[in-house]
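Work Package 3 (structural annotation) set out to generate three-dimensional models for the target panel prioritized at the project kickoff. During this period the team completed the workflow that converts sequence records into C-alpha cells, so that structures can be stored uniformly alongside our sequence database. As a representative example, we reproduce one entry of 358 residues exactly as it appears in the project archive.
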Amino acid sequence: MTGVMKLPNGSRRMKSSRFLAPWKDSRVKPAIYHCISRVVDRRFVLDELEREKFRTFLRMQENFSGCRVLSYCIMSNHFHILLEVPPMPEQGISDEELLQRLRSIYREGEVEMVALELAEVRRKVADGVASEEVVERIRQRYIYRMHNLSEFMKALLIRFTKWFNRTHDRTGTLWEERFKSVIVESGIAARTMAAYIDLNPVRAGMVADPTEYRWSSYGEAIGGGPRGNGKKAREGLVRACLSQEGVGFEAGRWAEIGVRYRELMGMALERKGERAKGGEEPGGLGSALPLEEMLRHRVRYFTDGAVIGSRAFVNEAFQAARERFSTKRKDGARRLRGSGKPAAGVLWSARDLRVDIG
C-alpha cells in the first residue's frame, strides 16, 4: 500500500509500501507483526472507558477478519498489538461463514440484508439470469478486508476514532501517523515480544505485576474468566509462546504455559526464598536471564527494527525485500545493542539503530 506524505517544507512524496512478511501466504510459516500507534501529540486521552472500548473494537475486528491477536496492551496514549495474519483459507470463505463474521461488526439487520441479497442473486444464478461473478462481487465487498494486516488496522483505528470523536465532541485525526509494524519470527522472538508488550504498564510504573493491568493480554488472560475474551487471551498467548512448535490456539495449554510465561516476564513465584528456575534454552520461554532485565527497559528495536528474529530469519526477509535497503548492504541481520544487548546473538534486527537505543 502506498500513499502521500506531506513534508515539513510543504512538498509531498510517496510513502513506501508496508513491509510485509514475504511468506505472508504460507500455510506453514506464520506471518506475525508487532503493531504500534500513538495518539496525536502523544496526548494521554485513553482513560478506562476508552481502553475498554478500544479492546471491544479490537476483538470485534479479530472475529471479523480472521486475524488473531496473540498479545496486546492498551496504554494511555498508545497501544501495542502482536498480530498473526493467516492466509485466506484454501477452501475460501463460505456464505455461512461470511455472514457469521459480519455479525462481529454489523448489526443483525444489516447482516440480514446481505444474506437476502446473496440468496436472491444465487436464485438468479440457478435460473440462468445471473452469473457467479455477481455473487462474488457482493462477497468481495467484505472478504477483501479479511486476512489482511493493513485492512485490520485501518478498520480498527477508523472505528475507534469515529467513536472517540463522537463521544468527545471533536473532529479530525486521533493517531499521529500511520501505524508502525515489525515482522516477528515465531518462537523465541514472538514470545519475547508478547512478554515485552504485556510488561508495558510495569515499565511505566503503573503496576508492580502485569496481572494488575486489565487492558493487556496477560491481565485479560488471568482476570477474564474461563470463557469469552479471557479464554481468547489465553489462546493467543499460548500461540505466541509455542507457534514454532505448530501449536495452535489451545487454551488447554495455559496451565502449563502461564507459569513459564510469568518466568519469562521475571514474575516467577517465590518458593522458599528462591525464584523458580526457568528452562535452559538461551533467551527462551522460562529463561529468567538474560531477557528478564532487558524486558524491564524500552527496547527500540522492538518497535523500529523492521524485522525481529533469528539471524537466518532476518536475512531471509532482507533478501526477499532487497530493494528496500541500500545497495551497499550485504546482508540484513544487525546485532542488537544498547538496551537490546542482552538478546544479542539470539535476536537480530533488520535495522541498525544508532539513536535512542538505551
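The CA atoms of residues 5 and 11 lie 9 Å apart.
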